Amino acid sequence: MAGDGARTSRSFAIILIVHLAVLVLWQVAVDAFQVPKFILPSPLATIQTLGTTGYAWGANTLVTAIEILGGFALGAFVGVALAVIFSWAPLLSLVLLPLFVTLNMIPKVALGPLFIVWFSYGIVPNILIAFSICFFPILLTTARGLREVEPDLLDLVKSLRGSRWTLFRKIQLPGSLPYIFSGMKVGAILAVAGAIVGEFIASERGLGYLMIQVQSSLDTPAMVMAVVLLTLLGVALYGLVLALERMFVVGDARQT
Question: What is the 3-class SS of 184-227, one letter each residue?
C-alpha cells in the first residue's frame, strides 16, 4: 500500500512538472519571438482574462460542465443498461445492435440543427448531442465485457441453479467492470467534444458560445482561456472515472 502511494505521488509529480515546463516554454517562446497576442497569447495574458467580468467565466463554465456531465451520465446509464439487456436477450441484440452501429455513423454535427428544431435552444439539446456521441463506445465495450466471461464460471453457476440475476451480479458484472470503465474513459473525452459541438452550432451560454462571440474581435486570449477551461473540465471528468475505476476494479482485485 505504501509503495503504491509513493508511486502515485511520484507519477503525479512528474506529470505536474511536465505541464509546468510546457507553460514556461510557451511563455518564453512568445516573449522571445514577440508573437502578437491575437496569434498566440502568452500564458500570463491568457490568465489575465479571468479578471475580466464581461466574459462571465463562472456562469459559462458551469453551463458547459452541466452539459458535459449530463451527457456523460446519460450515456453511461443508457450504454450499460442496453448492454445488459442485449446480454440477456441475444435476439434483441441481433436486431438492434446493427441499427445502433448505423446510427452512430451519422455525423453528430448534422444532428445539431435537428436537435435545435426538436428541442429548441438551451442546455437540453447540448446534453443530448453529448450523449449521442459518448454512449456508443460505452455500449460496445460493456457488451463485449459481458460476453467475455469464462464459460466454466457460467456453467458452475448454472449447475448450482443460480438465477439470471445471481449470474449477472456475481459473475458477469464483476468481470465486465474493466470493460465498462474503458468505455467510460473514452465516453468522458467524447462528452466534452459533444457539448462543444452543440454550443458551436447554436447556444446562448457556455464556453463554446463564448468562443464564437470573441472570435469576431480576434480576442485570442479569451478563446485560449476557454480551451483551457474545457480541458480542465475534461480532465476532471476523466479523473473521476479513473477514481471510480480504482475504487471498484483495483480495490476488488486487491481484496481477492
Answer: HHHHHHHHHHHHHHHHHHCCCCCHHHHHHHHHCCCCHHHHHHHH
Position 38 pLDDT exceeds 90: no
Q: What residue has cell string 512528474?
A: 14
Q: How many CB atoms lie within 10 A of CB 97?
A: 16
> pLDDT at residue 253 above 60?
no
- In angstroms, the CA 118 to CA 95 distance is 27
Nearest CA among 177, 182, 186 for reference residue 72: 186
pLDDT tens-digit readout, 186-197: 999 999 999 998
Phi, psi dihedral angles at 216 (to 5 degrees) = -65, -30
Average pLDDT rounded to a whole number, residues 127-139: 92
**Predicted TM-score (pTM) of this structure:** 0.87
Helices (H), the chain: 2-33, 43-48, 57-88, 90-104, 108-119, 123-147, 151-159, 164-167, 173-201, 207-215, 220-245, 251-255
229 Cβ contact list (under 8 Å, min separation 6): 57, 61, 64, 207
In angstroms, the Cα distances linking 23 to 4, 27, 45, 100, 238 are: 29, 6, 12, 42, 22
Asked if residue 29 lies in contact with residue 86, where contact means CB atoms within 8 angstroms, the answer is no
What single DSSP character describes residue 169?
I
Q: How far apart are CA 63 and CA 211, in angstroms?
A: 14
Q: Kindly tell me if the per-residue pLDDT of 218 is higher than 80.
A: yes
Cα 167 to its chain centre, rounded Å, is 30
